[in-house]
Q: What sequence folds into this?
């Protein structure tokens, strides 16, 4: 009898761990579990989800006779711990419903009460992490043991949860033995009036392990998510820092041009300042990480209108953008630093000026952008460290690395016939159709290729 009971309890622990893992595969369940704060509606939804999943265990016991599938007590307590009173009570009622229909009348009030108890325990936690740090395992190293004992509030909360697990198991067992003849509540060893100490210890330990192990499984995913979130925030901060370098760099160069124009041609200087104000207003309004290539091309037109004031007929622009590429998303402020680099280092030193070619093509799911000029070119001895010189090229190179990892190519090479060619290759990202014009481009990304996720 004891051997059979031990086997059932081991299967029970494995089963609740498996069900906890399966729930994490449901995107909705995972999203709800990882929330620190939930609305009343979300707590209700979480309770319905928990109740629907764990009631399958009660149904399996009643219909198929799988005693190990009975997880009502443990899962109701976990639901309350994770979601609060509403979640625990709703989940407990749904889990108990099949048992109630089978004549186990005490199951419903018991599991609702256990779920509410879990919510009460949640309120006792000084911080959410105390709930997730609860463990049924003894710390195996001295350092872990010392650390947990130094955390007085954590130790107190652990003892509170442990005591609650033992208490609810005691209540269930006592009620099941009291109403054994009527069959109003199921428990594994109610039929034995004097169970051995080993049986009692095993049953009570199983309840503690089922609660603790479920929290451990979910907390493992929660920790992974928190690390990913921290990495995402770090990447966003790094990207924002890089982007913020571009705008002052562009502004500084333009103001230098205005300063020189004021001395030679005041009227032209006023025109440049006006066009600069248009660009700056656009930059202040738009803070997205991505823009469509069409938006970037429009920004380049505004920028080139300033440069055209300075260079006049000496600056020629040829644009050859494929129509199918214009809605593809590219990093904001991608083209301007590269075009500025071509003008400043390629065409400006030439007395007669020159031409800049801009083109885009889409091949095999990859967008290729080329910026070419027929300027003076870059000396071969500077090619090897070109991405570490100045702000424009190095900034674009680093931003592409942050956004695309190894999925981008940025090549700079001499152009046949003189000048320089810059070639960029990035994965195709498309706009999604939206009815809200104010929605940012980052919220309208379509499917990202699998190798970028």
A:
């Amino acid at each position: 009898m004891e051997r059979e009971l031990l086997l059932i309890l081991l299967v029970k622990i494995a089963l609740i761990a498996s069900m906890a893992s399966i729930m994490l595969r449901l995107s909705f369940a995972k999203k709800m579990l990882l929330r620190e704060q939930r609305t009343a509606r979300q707590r209700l939804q979480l309770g319905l989800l928990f109740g629907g999943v764990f009631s399958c265990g009660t149904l399996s016991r009643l219909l198929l006779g799988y005693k190990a599938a009975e997880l009502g007590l443990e899962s109701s307590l976990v639901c309350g711990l994770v979601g609060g009173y509403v979640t625990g009570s709703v989940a407990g009622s749904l889990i108990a419903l099949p048992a109630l229909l089978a004549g186990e009348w005490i199951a419903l009030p018991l599991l609702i009460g256990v779920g509410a108890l879990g919510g009460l325990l949640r309120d006792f936690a000084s911080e959410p992490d105390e709930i997730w740090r609860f463990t049924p395992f003894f710390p195996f190293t001295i350092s872990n043991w010392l650390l947990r004992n130094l955390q007085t509030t954590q130790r107190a909360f652990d003892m509170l949860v442990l005591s609650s697990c033992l208490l609810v198991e005691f209540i269930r067992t006592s009620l099941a033995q009291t109403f054994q003849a009527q069959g109003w509540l199921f428990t594994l060893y109610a039929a034995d009036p004097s169970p051995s100490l080993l049986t009692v210890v095993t049953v009570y330990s199983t309840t503690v392990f089922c609660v603790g192990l479920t929290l451990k499984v979910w907390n493992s995913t929660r920790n992974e998510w928190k690390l990913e979130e921290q990495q995402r925030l770090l990447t966003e901060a790094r990207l924002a820092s890089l982007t913020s370098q571009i705008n002052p760099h562009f502004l500084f160069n333009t103001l230098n041009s205005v300063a020189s124009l004021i001395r030679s041609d005041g009227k032209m200087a006023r025109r440049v300042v006006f066009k600069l104000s248009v660009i700056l207003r656009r930059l202040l309004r738009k803070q997205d990480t991505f823009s469509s290539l069409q938006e970037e091309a429009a920004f380049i037109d505004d920028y080139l209108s300033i440069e055209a004031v300075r260079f006049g007929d000496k600056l020629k622009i040829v644009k050859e953008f494929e129509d199918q590429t214009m809605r593809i998303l590219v990093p904001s402020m991608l083209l301007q630093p590269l075009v500025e680099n071509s003008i400043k280092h390629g065409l400006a030193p030439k007395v007669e000026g020159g031409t800049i070619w801009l083109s885009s093509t889409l091949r095999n799911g990859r967008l290729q952008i080329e910026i070419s000029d027929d300027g003076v070119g870059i000396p071969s001895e500077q090619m090897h460290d070109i991405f570490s010189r100045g702000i424009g090229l190095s900034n674009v190179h680093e931003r592409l690395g942050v956004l695309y990892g190894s999925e981008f190519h940025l090549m700079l090479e001499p152009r046949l016939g003189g000048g320089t060619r810059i070639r960029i290759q990035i994965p195709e990202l498309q706009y999604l159709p939206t009815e809200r014009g104010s929605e940012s481009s980052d919220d309208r990304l379509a499917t990202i290729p699998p190798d970028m996720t």
Notes: The first strand starts at residue 290 and ends at 292.
